[in-house]
Write a structure and sequence with these properties.
Layout: E1 2-10, H1 48-60, E2 68-69, E3 72-75, E4 85-88, E5 95-102, E6 105-116, E7 120-124, E8 131-135, E9 142-148, H2 155-173, H3 179-182, E10 184-190, E11 196-202, H4 204-223, E12 231-236, E13 241-244, E14 257-258, E15 265-266, H5 268-273, H6 280-291, H7 295-304, H8 306-318, H9 322-332, H10 336-342, H11 345-360, H12 365-377, H13 390-403, H14 406-413, H15 418-428, H16 435-450
Parallel strand pairs: 11-12
Antiparallel strand pairs: 1-9, 1-10, 2-15, 3-4, 3-14, 5-6, 6-9, 7-8, 10-11, 12-13
Bound molecules: zinc ion.
Length: 452
């Protein structure tokens, strides 16, 4: 089975794509003007923010971005489109030939382009006495369309891919939380040779259902020895079936022409200078590559929290062992939702120090686990920051050294002899102080004794 998707998402700009009308109006036909209603003589002007968001997406998807782009008019007649054409991009999308790495698989991105949304038609009244109401608030709202190659192989994968893409874009340009329900997708699916297109699927759940239905329908036809006709269908959400779409709803010949009112845009340089922040999946991939851990483990860390991923990087760069990874996953990731709420800089340091002490062998795993649990429960860390009390700590260091005079002579040949003392002090104070600070005091004291 081969599945390709055309994903339409609304860009989170405050104004529309070609005029300054608001994108967040609530009353019907509240945010409209001559431009988004297509009155004669009105002139569209491109929203720079929308263009930048589009370029950001194209860049994130590793697309080739042309130096110059322009817009086209896609002509069709429908009441939701008062000017009888939609401004979109046809010959010159903002990005082509990209790719998206997803669960270790590469999905090719054929193109990314910008276009305006038409208005919204609402049908009310009883069958036979229906009225159509039109709301033009949506007319001119900026959309990005992302077209994939037929590289997806199951309905579930198509859903997960779209969900991951949305998560990335949410991080990148701040698209809304509702997008998993409001994303509009056209899907191509071929079980055998012939391709069937299902248009206008709303939301991720319907996407998976529509594709599953198509898979079963096409498989049954094949088993019955029938040929699958190439056709366009639509998904009926209520009956949970796909149905043949009436031809006139999806007229193919739109007669694209250049949009003369907008001109051309030099986007190559803008795109080149644009910096892409590291998105969640980019970070997953980097953690896996840089630290040699599995993709699924990296994903678990990053998707639990960026702060946990920071902690992981701090720890793992010092102790690159599978044990470090399991402390992060078993003790921290598992408790992260409660932990995150009370996390302070001190607490973070104590956690790092404690796991570090376990990994370097200066305290036992059992002791370390107990200390971690008490840190996680917040027993030792009720808000206030702990100033290191040098005198108090040095007193304990001295008593340990007095009890173990061999450490001083061991230290002359092996500096790691100090770890025992550091571990004991950490244990005594239940990880209240950072191990770096404690280590400094321990080494000071040992060297003071050696120089006597
Ligand atoms: Zn307007």
């Amino acid at each position: 089975m081969k599945i390709g998707l055309e994903i339409h998402l609304q860009l989170p700009t405050t104004s529309k794509l070609f005029c300054s009308c608001s994108t967040s109006a609530t009353e019907p036909n509240e945010a409209i003007c001559p431009t988004c209603l297509g009155f004669p003589g009105s002139r569209p002007r491109l929203n720079r923010k929308a263009l930048e968001m589009g370029l950001m997406i194209a860049k994130r998807l590793e697309c080739r971005i042309p130096d110059v782009i322009w817009f086209s008019r896609k002509t069709y007649f429908y009441p939701d489109l008062p000017k009888n054409f939609q401004i979109t991009q046809y010959e010159s999308p903002i990005g082509v030939d990209g790719k998206f790495l997803f669960d270790g698989k590469t999905i090719r991105i054929l193109r990314v382009h910008l276009e305006e949304d038409p208005g919204k038609i609402k049908r009310v009244g009883r069958v036979g006495e229906e009225l159509s109401l039109i709301d033009y608030n949506r007319s001119g709202v900026p959309l990005v369309e992302i077209v994939t190659a037929p590289d997806l192989s199951t309905p579930k994968e198509a859903r997960d891919f779209t969900s991951s893409l949305i998560t990335e874009l949410r991080y990148l340009i701040g698209i809304s939380d509702k997008d998993e329900q409001t994303v509009r997708v056209d899907a191509n699916i071929s079980v055998a040779e012939e391709r069937v297109e299902v248009k206008n699927i709303l939301g991720l759940r319907n996407l998976e259902r529509a594709l599953e239905f198509e898979f079963v329908r096409q498989s049954k036809m094949l088993r019955a020895g029938k040929k699958i006709p190439r056709e366009t269908r639509r998904y009926d959400e209520e009956r949970k079936v796909t149905l043949p779409a009436r031809e006139k709803e999806f007229e193919e010949d739109y007669g694209y022409i250049l949009e003369p009112d907008l001109g051309v845009f030099n986007v190559g340089e803008i795109a080149e200078l644009m910096a892409i922040p590291e998105t969640p999946l980019m970070r997953v991939e980097r953690l896996s590559r840089e630290y040699g851990i599995g993709l699924s483990e990296a994903k678990k860390i990053v998707f639990t929290s960026y702060a946990l991923a920071d902690l992981f990087e701090d720890l793992y760069s010092k102790y690159p062992t599978s044990k470090a990874l399991s402390w992060i996953l078993d003790q921290l990731a598992a408790n992260w939702s409660t932990l995150e709420k009370k996390m302070t800089e001190d607490m973070r340091n104590s956690i790092l120090t404690t796991i570090g002490s376990i990994l370097s062998g200066s305290i036992s795993e059992n002791e370390g686990r107990k200390m971690l649990v008490s840190i996680i429960k917040g027993e030792e860390f009720v808000g206030a920051s702990q100033e290191l009390n040098n005198q108090e700590v040095t007193k304990i260091i001295c008593s340990i050294l007095n009890g173990h005079p061999e450490i001083i002579s061991d230290y002359k040949t092996n500096k790691r002899a100090a770890n025992f003392v550091i571990g004991q002090v950490m244990k005594f104070f239940k990880g209240r102080y950072s191990s770096d600070e404690v280590a400094k005091l321990v080494i000071n004291e040992i060297e003071r004794r050696l120089s006597r």
